[in-house]
Amino acid sequence: MTTTNSEPLVSILIINHNYGQFLHQAIESVAAQDYPNIECIIVDNLSTDASVDIARQIIAGDPRFRLVTLDANYGQLGAFFRTFEECNGRYVTILDADDILFPAFVSSHVQVHLALPSPVALTSSNVVETDATGGVRSGRYPHFGSPLLWDCPGLVDRRDAPRVATVSDRQFDRMSPRVSAIPATQMGWFWGPGSANMYRHSILEAVCQQRATPYLRGADAYLNPFAHALGGTALIDSPLSFYRIHGSNYFAVRETVTGLRAGRPEFDALHLALAEETVDFMLGHAARFRPILGHDRFWEVLDQLARFGSGRTVFRSKAFLDSLVRHAAVVQASFSDRELARVLVENVKPTRLATLMPRLLLASPRLGLQLRVTLQSLADPLGRRRRRRARRHGRVAFHAQPAAGHPPKPHDFGTARLLTRDPPVFVTGITFDEWLGVAGAFGRRFGDTAAGFIVYPTWSIEDPDKIAAIGRAVQEHRRRHPAHRIVFIGNTRREADMLAGEGLPALFLNKNFFVSERVFHPIAEQEPEFDAVYNARFVPEKRHALAELIRTVGYLGYVSESHDEHQDEIALMARLVRENPSHRLLNPVVDRRPVRLDPAGVNRQINRARVGLILSEVEGANYASMEYMLAGLPVVSTPSAGGREVYFDPDYCIVCDPTPEAVAAAVETLKARNIPPEHIRQRTLAKLVPERRRFLDLVAQLHHKLGGGRFDAPEWPYAHLDTFLTFGSYEPYLDSLEQASVVSRGGTRPPGVRALLTDTAIAGR
């Protein structure tokens, strides 16, 4: 056991207002801590009972304690803001004046902080609920923890951890499996109440506010979600304090019973107000948080805090827009005008942007002008052209009318799906030299008939030459077909930025949200047979050799009859299995050629393994990565270009060095974590929902700008499809439009969203 030379100082802040009848027990519980290095600051919020006299009498002669009296009742959170500078400890606990700490509270929390694999912002332990006289009401706090926690030790081996002298080996080993780390991105209330928490001092410094007036809010309601969003939480599922419920609590009116509300009815409104005030504080101190969090995480944390209070995204909040205008100069100093404009355009509804624009122009003319420019190039990628009056009010026939001097290409196939027919809006992929996907084939057949195209990369385009080629293709296409509207979605932010830098309308929206959660899901009765599964073609670029040190691997891959190189692929497949007898091919074989499985078959085979592999250096977004996670598999990847890591979560995804040793070690690490498949699936789905909403908003905008009627899709309307996109010919879509002959325009009420969908899919991986 390696004990620390000097246990870190812990500050305990007791904030009191008229709790004299309980205060002596709170102070005595601090004095009884078995941890040797504490200080306790008792803060009195202008009590009118005997609290101050009681405190002075109890702490007399004990140098660990001191008393601070305030000139008004600032509330618990307000008093914390005014006295935080009194705290000198590396860790801080705010003890409610009516609660009691167990003797091992401080030592247990400090030991967890010191022995976690990665530092967190706060630790939180379970509680025993009592009544005013100390009678036990419940043995634990039902809201503590998360249904998505998994059963694995949360601490490093005790032989490798810095140790607190008062925590024995037996206590350490008993506590370790009860500790679970909650990543900063997970939302919800999973902490113990009030006194059950210990915060890292440096995190409290970041979130502490300077307020001269009372702030009647509970400290944990502000500190826990904010600190967690910055650095995550470790939960200790052992009761380490008494939480007293006596009728005068700030929040609770009764003991906590699963399924029943324990809080005061007015707390919901206070909760919402606190979330809005926290968002306002963060925007007003963007210069503090932007360097800590970076660009993307800043806005994610802002949104996370808003959702915690209201359940709605911050970008739909009027309070957020008011705060943004109020703090425009401060925020503008921390972000470039272009960065800010992109965030607003990508997340705020056009109707709200329209009302925001004049206010921003007054508050910050430069930012307002940039927002206008970005709105035109990004959020309004369709431009200001309007269809001719005949198209707007008449009926348009789709007849082949190839443009002069624009000969058909020999390979009109790739990836696409027709999203709406009236007017036609496609989502389509960049394949071969078809830089605009189906748009070229559509133009070659129907000429300048108004249509919209959402274009995504099927392979990484983070290459200046590719971006330049796309730019030239768009310029030529616009010259031939000015009525076509094209917008790009990038699988990585860099792709979107490079496209925008070329003057093209582009959003960062990774296409892996197309994968069907109906098809890819955990199979509870399927017992894993393989350590890992690798779903990839048998080509050198997939680097199958990196899996050679994994004990058992299942390979998913097929060889198309149309591939000229299929003999090389078959040879590689045979060599992999021959050189690694415990590795197996999972596809059926016909005439020595592994044949393709349908999506449900792929899901069944994926569920035979514990970990999914992706080992290529360059890819597209890689649907296989999403299929693994929706099926409940953790993922081992190597560093890559293309965007497959966008939906990764460090809890169940490891990006390791591209060596056989590192890949095998990462697989063993994820196996040892033993994360429930449903946890991985639900966390992944939570990331897909907002991205699908953004995609549907883009489709609706494109549809509207082309003169279509209302496109209303409150939920993902493609859930019934096994495969959203597959690779094939563009002809079925173009034929269906031509055979339909006419498409209603203008005032005719369009059919419902599902009626606008076609079940014939064209697309690919």
Automatic annotation (TrEMBL):
Span of domain Glycosyltransferase 2-like: 11-125
Pfam families xref list: Glycos_transf_2
Molecular function GO labels: hexosyltransferase activity
Superkingdom field: Bacteria
InterPro entries: Glyco_trans_2-like, Nucleotide-diphossugar_trans
Name assigned to this protein: Glycosyltransferase 2-like domain-containing protein
